[in-house]
Write a structure and sequence with these properties.
The complex is a heterodimer of chains A (160) and B (287). By secondary structure, chain A is an all-alpha fold. Chain A has seven helices and no strands. Chain B is globular and about 70 Å long. Classes of the chains: A mainly alpha (160), B alpha+beta (287).
Chain lengths: 160, 287
């Protein structure tokens, strides 16, 4: 089996995550959409810490800003923090079972949601704060499956 | 080689602190530039061109479904629809003729008055790519951008009312902020009385609020709001909303007044971009 070079696989998963972020959903599900991009960035930051650093997270954040029409730099800032937490914890994280990993993911994504909420507040977009954190919970529950899927992608397509 | 890689992996986090600080500073700089100086249109449009494939991919299934729907409609239904459209076309032609006559008359009168007739603006049809970006904002993305002469600030209309205005543009797509976005305010006047005020978005697609109408203002349920053209952003005299509720609040300075937008927000596939020239606040009306 010919293996793809790793940047293509990583970029493809990020592309899918970006598409899922803006894919149409029924209106009741909008506030519950998982944080696809943050989850993907988190995975690559713990799986390839020496290659996928904060700089890439930042760049992905800028794309996400343009796609969602938020203030330029908001998602870049939030994703930089996610990648940083991932890089700091990746060695410890490998020791833990998946459900404990979910808690760390929840912490990183909670910070992510908070930063976005805070920037939204600075630009006077008020919203009910609690609903803003619903996607964090959903993403935590999804983490084991995301992890499994992206690990399969990595084992198949990424050289180590 | 493998050991070296393991080593690098083990110490990967070491250099990240400084780099993280750098990227955080860069992000905050971008935020400030975007918020206070709106200086990033060019950069945004480059990124916007890069994410266009994502937008296209996301919408491909729904466009395909719509096309398939047309293909599978029964023959009789199509014939019926054809007939109906013919009738509509006839009516529209008749109306257009009357409008043309009026325009000629208007032009003649203007010449008589000695004022140069301004060029009427252009209307362009644009397809809506995405509607639901985030639940807290009311933005839509259109399939035309800078390459079609779209620029920030242009008003967006549909057949029944004002939809919003262009917020930012990329080469092939542009974002529209709807009049119901919480960050949007549109200068309106009550058609019956000419009273001018502002209508604010609430985040809900069928609700505008008019917070600056005093308790004794002459406004009733069912009054139609048209754009006043003040500020020069929106064309004058185009329908915006209809008042749904007026609740005087004794003891407070302003009444609670709510309105329902007339444009079919979030229910249309196509909208019109009105590329008129920004001239004076009392610029040309579209009618």
């Amino acid at each position: 089996m010919r293996r793809l070079s790793s940047p293509v696989a990583v970029m493809a998963t990020l592309f899918i995550a970006l598409a899922l972020t803006v894919a149409p959903l029924p209106s009741w599900a909008l506030a519950l959409r998982p944080l696809w991009v943050a989850l993907t960035v988190y995975y690559w930051a713990i799986a390839l810490p020496e290659r996928f650093g904060v700089g890439y997270a930042w760049l992905v954040g800028l794309f996400l800003d343009v796609l969602t029409g938020s203030l330029f730099g908001a998602h870049a800032l939030a994703l930089t923090l996610v990648a940083f937490i991932a890089a700091r914890t990746h060695l410890k994280l490998r020791m833990h079972p998946l459900w404990q990993q979910s808690l760390t993911v929840g912490f990183a994504l909670g910070l992510y949601a908070f930063v976005l909420f805070w920037i939204g507040g600075l630009t006077h977009q008020m919203s009910r704060p609690l609903i803003r954190f619903a996607p964090v919970g959903i993403s935590m529950l999804l983490w084991p499956w995301i992890y499994g899927f992206l690990r399969a992608v990595r084992r198949r397509y990424v050289h180590t | 080689m493998r050991i070296l890689r393991q080593h690098r992996r083990f110490h990967a986090a070491r250099g990240q602190g400084l780099r993280t600080l750098f990227f955080i500073a860069a992000a905050i700089t971008l935020l400030t530039l975007d918020q206070h100086f709106q200086a990033l249109h060019a950069v945004r449009s480059v990124f916007s061109a890069a994410v266009y494939p994502v937008e296209w991919l996301v919408n491909a299934p729904s466009f395909a479904l719509r096309d398939m729907g047309t293909a599978f409609q029964g023959h009789t239904k199509l014939v019926e629809e054809n007939q109906m459209l013919r009738h509509k076309l006839l009516l529209a032609r008749a109306r257009l003729e009357r409008l043309n006559a009026l325009r000629r008359e208007n032009q003649r009168l203007r010449t008589l008055l000695g004022t140069a007739a301004e060029l009427p603006g252009n209307l362009r049809i644009a397809s809506i790519l995405t509607v639901d970006l985030t639940p807290y904002r009311n933005l839509i993305t259109l399939n035309i951008g800078l390459t079609s002469g779209i620029r920030p600030g242009l008003p967006i209309l549909d057949a029944s009312g004002i939809v919003g205005q262009i917020k930012s543009t990329g080469p092939f797509s542009s974002q529209v902020i709807l009049i119901t976005d919480p960050a949007s305010a549109i200068p309106v006047e009550i058609e019956r009385t000419g009273l001018a005020t502002l209508a604010f978005g609430t985040g809900s697609l069928n609700l505008l609020t008019l917070p600056y109408l005093p308790n004794n203002a002459d406004v009733h349920r069912g009054d139609e709001l048209t754009s006043s053209g003040l500020g020069g952003r929106y064309p004058r005299g185009y329908p915006v909303a209809v008042i749904t509720q007026v609740t005087p609040r004794p003891g407070q300075r302003f009444a609670r007044v709510e309105a329902r937008p007339l444009a079919k927000l979030g229910r249309e596939h196509e909208v019109l971009v009105y590329t008129f020239r920004h001239t004076t606040p009392t610029g040309e009306s579209i009618r």
